[in-house]
Specification:
about 350 residues, 2 domains, mainly alpha
Length: about 350
């Protein structure tokens, strides 16, 4: 390697490292922007049949994202604030609050055999919750500011990505150091896995939220639509998931004296809602590609740990890419055929 080549390699590696450090704080929003651009590409092509102006088409796609994300978020946030206020008011101002505590005390005594006096801890708990909220408020406001800035970056990336034509894709394709047939196979594999993961995650979330909300409606839990919508969001988190919503609701029904409805909601959540995540999600994802459900599970969990929320897609996609490359090497260079 000549001095010129050495200088060029060192320079480009240094520039790449610097660029990565600059982009890293916004990497999640950058990936989300590119992913949404990819998902919206078929719709963009349909719109371009009627509207030739690329800038106008990009603006329409951005408007679609704004309507699809901001309006539901504002609605859910408003509903959630109202529900929190109503719940706090019920606990602090309701004349029946002491009766609720006595029911809970009686249930604890029946289970443990020891008397319980929750009135002693009530004021301490309220003080601790207030202190927690005061301490968390600055971090929460900071998170909102960071999210708004990241959301702007995502829309900015989407706007210019949606305007790019076939030439940008071909430039990226040309940089892949593989034979043309392997390039096509690799690109198709990435497309297949990306659609599979997105399809599996989104469909599972919608089904879980719908079933959870329906369970709340059937068993008489208020605001079924609100809690169903929240369960849609929580279903993306495999280690937390929807039980943090329906399980406390079922326990509250049991403690309130509605034992049959509470047990019914527990069974509904445990048998139907949870099994959607345990059974349906891997089948939805693996059914759209050659990726094994175990790889999907490891990819999602590992991706969440390493990359955060984008790991839901980046994790399985990384493992699938590795498996595809190994298979290509076996087929093209070792002469082995896939079994």
């Amino acid at each position: 390697m000549t001095k010129e080549h050495t200088f060029f390699v060192l320079t480009i590696c240094t520039a790449f490292l610097g660029a990565f450090l600059l982009v890293f704080p916004f990497i999640q929003y950058l990936v989300f922007g590119l992913l949404l651009t990819y998902i919206l590409h078929p719709l963009k092509r349909r719109v371009q049949l009627h509207i030739r102006n690329r800038i106008l088409v990009a603006l329409l796609m951005i408007l679609l994202i704004l309507v699809a994300v901001i309006l539901p978020t504002v609605y859910l946030a408003t509903k959630l604030v109202r529900e929190i206020r109503a719940t706090v008011s019920m606990v602090t101002e309701s004349p029946n609050r002491d009766a609720y505590l006595e029911k809970v005390e009686g249930w604890i005594q029946r289970v443990t055999g020891e008397p319980a006096d929750l009135h002693v801890y009530k004021n301490q708990l309220i003080a601790q919750v207030r202190g927690l909220l005061v301490r968390a408020a600055p971090d929460f406001l900071g998170s909102i500011s960071e999210w708004l800035l990241g959301f702007f970056v995502m829309l900015f990336v989407m706007f210019y990505s949606l305007q790019s034509g076939r030439g940008s894709f071909e430039r990226v394709r040309a940089l892949i150091p593989l034979a043309p047939n392997l390039k096509d196979k690799l690109i198709e594999e990435i497309k297949s896995v990306t659609w599979a993961v997105v399809y599996g995650q989104v469909m599972t979330a919608l089904i879980q939220g719908a079933l959870g909300g329906l369970g709340f409606l059937v068993f008489g839990v208020p605001n079924a639509i609100l809690w169903g919508s929240i369960m849609i969001l929580l279903s993306f988190l495999p280690l937390i998931g929807t039980p943090v919503i329906w399980a406390p609701a079922a326990i509250f029904l049991i403690l309130s004296g509605a034992t049959a409805r509470g047990i019914g909601l527990l069974l509904w959540g445990g048998i139907l809602v949870m099994n959607v995540d345990n059974v349906l999600k891997p089948r939805l994802i693996s059914g759209q590609s050659n990726i094994h459900p175990v790889v999907v599970l490891l990819g999602v969990l590992g991706g969440l740990k390493l990359f955060g929320f984008i790991g839901l897609v980046a994790g399985p996609l990384t493992l699938a890419l590795l498996i595809a490359l190994i298979r290509f090497y076996e087929e093209e260079y070792l002469g082995l055929k896939a079994g």
